[in-house]
Amino acid sequence: MTLLRSVRPRIGGLRKYTGPRPRRRTYIVLGIETSCDDTSVCLYDRHSRSEPARLISSLTASLDNREFKGIVPTLALNHHQVHLAPLVSKLLCPVNGPRIRPDLICVTRGPGMRGSLSVGVEFAKGLSLAWGVPMIGVHHMLAHLLTPRLLTNGSAPRFPFLSLLVSGGHTMLVLSSSLLDHQILADTIDIAMGDAIDKSARELGLNGNMNGPELEKLVRQYESSVVAGVNKALTKDELVGEFGIQVKLPMRPKPGRKQEAVFSFSSFVSMVTRGVGKKGGLDALSETEVQIIAKQIQDAIFDHVIDRITYTLSTLPKDVVARIQDFVCSGGVGSNLVLRQKLRDMFANSAMNLHFPPPELCTDNARMIAWTGIELWETEGLHSSYDIMPTAKWRIDNILGDVDGWLRVDDRHAASPADI
User: Fold this and answer.
1) What superfamily does domain 4-156+361-419 belong to in CATH?
2) 167 has a pLDDT exceeding 60
């Protein structure tokens, strides 16, 4: 019986698998991530639910965007088309080992760039159909949110927990009550934090493939020079005056302004543009002045995030806050050490457990996609039909209702994907 013939209508739009009873638990998982411009794939061996999934291999092909000063969607799409199949082939056909056939395919369905997503989704459909194994279309931001659970085999963080999801395309504070129940407490009203950092860095002359880490490097260079005695530590007045630029936090309380649980980052880019212009342009700045402005703008962006998190938590009922024991910071910007320290300082007097994934798991990666698929399969019995489409915009607070194509296994607690 094929996968598509083994389903029937189910309440709530889900359909239930009614195929053979399970025979074994262990299974191999293929993860595919193509939401933006990096092609990432991985293989996991899910030998036992009581043990962490074992990473067999992980491969990534990155696209160099420095020439174009940003992501070009058509080039990203071509990059995935060129690299995805060879990377998967390299995973499944190791030089000194037997061929591997996965039992479950987990692929990013959205949100992201539609063209890039389509390469991964259609490739996953083909493999799923050819091998007769289930496929799961994974929510990209849910995967970032669950990344720390990959490292703890799902034991931590515990629901309910808070997540600050920070990337080039998203900045949001999310309260997660369960695997499928997420509430956006604060979102950005303009651009994402990662986007603001990238554009601010470009205004300071940086043109790396990832400008966030390059800006952080400038800040570290300045701080190291202060420690070494090469430069002196500057007061706030000195920063705003001779050496730096004028920086203000948006959304701060003032008469006539209603407080909102939102983030706003577009003004930071304007502050850099205006400040550099007043100092005579980039060519008129010394290396130290560029480093100082980099520190100013990075600190201001992160201080704004801390300010808005503090305000947002103050609006929640005390009993809701009391039940939250874990806080996650994930996404590309989540690897920044200054942001991590500011969050530690924020929660220094609380009992909150902070979770920071390692840098390689903060950026877009197939490992988090594979793990999220494992959780969706084992906890909810969910997988996807062959008619799913890549979804550029997909709200995390409506994971099941925002898109169609969900299937559900009849006996999810006993089944392995290899058995359906």
Assistant:
1) ATPase, nucleotide binding domain (3.30.420.40)
2) yes
Q: Are 353 and 157 in contact (CB under 8 A)?
A: yes
Q: Which CATH superfamily is domain 161-359 in?
A: ATPase, nucleotide binding domain (3.30.420.40)
For residue 20, how many C-alpha atoms fall within 13 Å in the half-sphere facing its CB? 10
Output the pLDDT for position 122. Answer: 98
C-beta separation of 243 from 222 below 8 A: no
Long-range Cβ contact pairs of 212-217 (< 8 A, separation 24 or more): 212/332, 212/333, 212/336, 213/335, 215/294, 215/297, 215/298, 216/298, 216/336, 216/337, 216/338
Query: Using an 8 Å Cβ cutoff, are 221 and 290 in contact?
Result: no
Q: Has residue 306 got a pLDDT over 50?
A: yes
Under the banding of pLDDT at 50, 70 and 90, the label for residue 17 is: very low
Distance CA 15, CA 4 (A): 10
| Dihedral pair phi/psi, residue 275, rounded to 5° | -65, -45
Residues 345 and 347: their CA atoms lie apart, in Å, by 6
The domain ranges of the chain are 4-156+361-419, 161-359
Choose among 247, 259, 267, 266: nearest CA to 311. Answer: 259
pLDDT reading at 13 higher than 90? no
Q: Give the model's pLDDT for residue 153.
A: 95
Q: Give me the amino acid identity at 274.
A: R
Bridge-based pairing of strands 27-33 and 39-46 is: antiparallel
pTM: 0.90
The predicted pLDDT at position 18 comes to 47
Residue 235: phi and psi, rounded to 5, are -75, 170
pLDDT in tens, 279-305: 999 999 999 999 999 999 999 999 999
- Phi, psi torsion values for 335, nearest 5 degrees: -85, -10
Q: Is 131 exposed, middle or buried (0-12, 13-18, 19+ CB in 10 A)?
A: middle
Tell me if the bond preceding 317 is cis, omega within 30° of 0. Answer: no
Could you read off the pLDDT of 387-415 as tens digits, one per residue? 999 999 999 999 999 999 999 986 555 56
